[in-house]
Design goal:
- The mean pLDDT is about 90.
- It contains two helices and twelve strands, in the order E-H-E-E-E-E-E-H-E-E-E-E-E-E.
- With about 210 residues, it is mainly beta.
- Helix content is about 10%, strand content about 40%.
Length: about 210
């Protein structure tokens, strides 16, 4: 299980996400003004890569928009992934970390497939070794660990990653509405207005 360190990250996650969003076609604003409203983690079995879903709200426009931003934290640069790099940050315990859009990181995608197959559980965002029961997974059939993970492609509302013969993994970037409950879906809540929790679908595995 990953260990959550109570320490600093400079620049912060939100600052790095703010620099990323205007470069993405699915972002609807101009100058982000963000706050975190939810999220969770998935453990990397090898313990080398941090994997975290971060849900943020951008309230720079008249109507707030929630964005789904999966992140990975690495101790070295990921080859051929410059376009997915948010930047580097100094972690108070682990030192320099390279932070990527998780939809383009094969370690994160493989971990999500494990989650959708029902083999692992989502973990609390801020506590070590603690499952997060608020994360809802409707399992799909077992996906082979050797499934070929293709290149992430950004669209107007989602990022899609081809997964060999298993289908397409779709990251819903500005999730809205209630989860579909279909097999192969991942949902989690966010808190936008006080204690009210809004469950939304974040990822779905689509058949070809």
């Amino acid at each position: 299980m990953a260990v959550i360190h109570r320490t600093t990250l400079v620049p912060s996650k939100l600052a790095l996400i703010e620099t990323m969003l205007p470069r993405r076609p699915w972002y609807r604003g101009r100058v982000p003004r963000l706050r975190k409203v939810g999220g969770f983690r998935i453990d990397d079995p090898a313990g080398a890569v941090g994997i975290e879903f971060v849900l943020v709200v951008d309230d720079s426009a008249a109507r707030p928009v929630v964005y789904n931003v999966p992140l990975t934290y690495r101790g070295a640069a990921l080859a051929d992934a410059e376009s997915a790099l948010l930047g580097t940050a100094e972690h108070g315990v682990l030192g320099r970390r390279w932070i990527y859009d998780g939809a383009a990181d094969p370690i994160a995608v493989a971990a999500i497939l494990e989650l959708l197959s029902g083999r692992v559980a989502a973990q609390a965002q801020n506590r070590s070794d603690t499952p997060d029961p608020s994360v809802s997974v409707v399992p799909t059939g077992t996906i082979t660990a050797q499934a070929h993970i293709g290149t992430a492609v950004d669209g107007d509302t989602a990022t899609e990653v081809p997964i060999g013969t298993a289908g397409i993994l779709r990251f819903h970037r500005s999730p809205a509405g209630r989860p579909s409950g279909a097999p192969g879906t991942l949902a989690a809540p966010y808190e936008l207005d006080g204690p009210t929790r809004h469950p939304v679908e974040l990822v779905s595995l689509l058949s070809r």
